[in-house]
Write a structure and sequence with these properties.
Length: about 240
Amino acid sequence: MNFNNYYNREIINMNTEVTNAFVRKVMSYMISGLILTTLVPLYLFFFNYELVITLTRYFQIIAIAEVALVLFLSFRINKISPVTAKLVFFLYSLMNGILFSSLAFIFHPMSILYTLGITVIMFIVIGVYGYTTKEDLTKYSKFFMTGLITIILISLINIFLKAPMLYWVGTILGVVIFSGLIAFDLNRIKYIAYNIADNDKEMIEKMGIIGALNLYLDFINLFLYLLRIFGKKRN
């Protein structure tokens, strides 16, 4: 019996189990955040409409607070506890849900649900590719960074120009970039799992939250750009 081959198979199996467990943890956090983000506007718009009207006065403050939460979670992840990281992530998801309640004022609800369905299907298909591919997608990090900067610049320029062509160029580029980021981030999360296999549980929990935040942002941004295409605006 070749003990070296047996040992290698055991290591591979162990790494696979650790990777799968870590990815399940990340996905469970991300899905929980998305469910919270979905339930909040449904409740506000259909069951507490007056509260929605009141909250619209504070949307700018909420948006700034959201940016602060993302920055706090990204830069302080090594110093905060896993419980704090989870609370910040779910608070961000809740606040995002409050902002998303405004979409029902702009788009017909059925077109929002239709776009949400398309986003879910795209996320699953692209995510499976990103997780199962043997290619290391981290080599495309510069491409995605350049794409994100380009989207931001186009958006800023178009605030002043209000050019339909730039609007649609930014929209198509946004769909392409955030679709690619789904595969990129899941691929990266898979490899992170190998590196943290011997680390403590606290670090695994916190890295799971960061991974969930990245995928959550990919999903939300893809949804918003698809909504530009498929969303039917109210008259």
